[in-house]
Design a protein that fits this description.
This protein has 205 residues and is an alpha/beta fold. The protein has a single domain, classed as Aldolase class I (TIM Barrel, Alpha-Beta Barrel), CATH 3.20.20. It contains five helices and nine strands. Strands 3-1-2-4-5-6-7-8-9 form a nine-stranded mixed sheet. α2 links the parallel β4 and β5. The protein is globular, with a radius of gyration of 17 Å. The N and C termini lie far apart (33 Å). The relative contact order is 0.16. Bound molecules: iron/sulfur cluster (SF4). Iron/sulfur cluster binds next to loops.
Length: 205
């Protein structure tokens, strides 16, 4: 029997709001469930209201949503690597989609991904859960909060050799302080760029 994936939502057409591909038209596939419980997480990935779909059902819905044939899907969660696998990857690619994934870096994707964003949050890992050593992101997006400083960014540069490094202020009650810190860090380390959640500024989902 075909595997059924627990999907929180699929939506589009919209724009990618973050990272090197910010502003690109796309559709979104959001899986339910995450293996972290980061304080201040602003994403609803709970199983309540989520629906189980087969890979062909997911692809059919994404094709329907992708009204302008951008054929780029952002696969996110929650933590998408908990469910994403080779059959779903193959089905998406067969329909012409370029797959972008946003992961917390605790697991390597189990299917082909065309663009991998890792946003590590080891400060919020339960004890015993480590960042995966076999993950090779295209871009790194580090949330700037009270736990991150210049040494954190230097450590990530060494751990993840990749093309794009982004610092993004954590959106909690201290966002303004985190933003000022992120700007200062980027000015000190020119390999890094400030990432702003553009979709929230322009009001798209
Ligand atoms: S890893 Fe991301 S989705 Fe999961 S709890 Fe943390 S911020 Fe939320």
């Amino acid at each position: 029997m075909d595997r059924r994936y627990l999907v929180k939502e699929m939506f589009g057409p919209t724009l990618q709001g973050e990272g090197a591909h910010a502003g690109r038209p796309c559709v979104f596939l959001r899986f339910a469930a995450c293996n972290l419980e980061c304080p201040g997480c602003d994403t609803d990935f709970s199983p309540e209201g989520a629906v189980r779909y087969t890979a062909p059902e997911i692809v059919a819905r994404l094709v329907e949503l992708d009204a302008h044939r951008a054929r780029m899907v952002v696969v996110t969660g929650g933590e998408p690597t908990l469910q994403y696998d080779a059959p779903l990857a193959d089905a998406l690619h067969a329909a012409g989609f370029r797959v972008h994934m946003e992961s917390n870096g605790t697991r390597a994707p189990q299917g082909k991904v065309d663009w991998l964003t890792v946003s590590p949050k080891p400060q919020y890992h339960p004890s015993g859960l480590l960042l995966a050593s076999d993950v090779a992101p295209n871009e790194l997006k580090v949330v700037i909060d009270d736990h991150t400083d210049a040494s954190t960014l230097a450590r990530y540069e060494a751990q993840y050799p990749c093309e794009h490094y982004f610092a993004q202020a954590w959106m909690d009650d201290h966002y303004r302080e985190h933003l000022a810190k992120a700007i200062a860090l980027v000015q000190e380390r020119p390999r890094w760029r400030l990432s702003v959640q553009m979709h929230k500024v322009i009001g798209v989902p």
